[in-house]
Task: structure prediction
Amino acid sequence: MTPVIPDIIGTDVVTVLQTAMAPAFLLVGIGAMLNIFTGRLARIIDRSRLLQQRFNETKGREHELIVNELHDLQLRIRIVNSAIYLSVVGAIVTFILIGLLFTMGLTGNRSLDQVVAGAFIVTVILLSVALIQFLREVRIGIRDFMIREEYLERADIPKGKPLIKPGK
Result:
């Protein structure tokens, strides 16, 4: 059995560290994404709490609007949660990728090349799906934020008339 320590000492550890830590920049990006996602989740939760407080105080059309928005908020919570989950799994795979690169650099074992490539591809796919989920949530949020027609009435335009003339 050959000692491992002399091999490690003979290896250019700085180069190994540089190579293995290159994906750390990816982790910084994932952290920024998670910060955005959790901020969105907090805002959705705050909005849902506000609507839940108003739930019993409303009737008729206003009550229906609150119920519909609460359904959309529940969907948005699930979507943002899945984006957070996918991002965290992507971060874990990135940590594994860093460990594999470090191990490869220290041992000189090139048999892990395909595993490293696969880990990187998995990370990119996870983060892409997380961003798609985030896009879905933003689209639902914008749809919910549409200003209702009764708030857009203007005194200079008769009710039921469009603000923009057709064909323009």
Observations:
- The chain has a mean pLDDT of 84.
- Residues 10-151 form one domain.
- The longest helix spans residues 60-107.
- Helices lie at 5-10, 13-21, 24-55, 60-107, 113-145.
